[in-house]
Amino acid sequence: MNELNNNKPMNNHLNYATNLNINSNNKIANENFKKEINSTINFTNDSIQLDPNRKNIINKINASKAFNEACDDMNLSLKELGHLTIAYGRICSEIQNRGINVPDFNLDNYDQETSSFLPFISKMKEFTQNYFSKDNHFITSVITSDVFLGFCDKFEEKLKKYDCL
């Protein structure tokens, strides 16, 4: 019966902790072993380099999170939220038709021009103010230009929170 207990995970853990000389506070008690670990790991020289395509993907993922959080922060009904996303798409299409690069959430598209959300939000706000009157004009049947501009401000804030380009 004792042979069965030696194969249990708990006993393996205890044997492992004993061999490494780890005390009950999960600290390494053996100073020589601690020095050996510290001498083999050099955190100051370690770094991770991402290629530009990966940076664009990460940026788009973070921009998507920012977009969703901005939508949540607007406290809109489902109908209003639907109209808000339609307005976003409509305005993006209008801007793109005028020859301005529009960022997208497509992860297969590595183009830097379609990954830069933060500068685009400024263009989108300017376009909205110029294209729709400042008199609380309806962009869709439910969303007014003031509501949309408020969304743009929140989206911009969230993009900065996630360090998006």
Report on this model:
This is DNA-binding protein. The chain has helices at residues 2-6, 9-20, 31-40, 52-73, 78-97, 117-131, 145-161. With 165 residues, the chain is mainly alpha-helical. It has two domains: 2-40, no CATH class; 52-161, no CATH class. Helix 4 packs across helix 7 and helix 6 packs antiparallel against helix 7 (145-161). 18% of the residues are buried.
Question: What is the N-to-C succession of helices and strands?
Answer: HHHHHHH
Helicity level: 55-70%
Oligomer: single chain
Count of discrete alpha- or pi-helical segments spanning 4 or more residues: 7
- Kindly report the average pLDDT value: 78
Distance between the termini: 63 Å
> Could you tell me the strand content as a percent range?
under 5%
Broad shape: globular
Instruction: Name the poorly predicted regions.
Output: none
Number of DSSP E strands:
0
Class inferred from helices and paired strands: mainly alpha
Count of the domains: 2
Question: Could you tell me the radius of gyration in angstroms?
Answer: 27 Å
Largest sheet, in brief, is: none
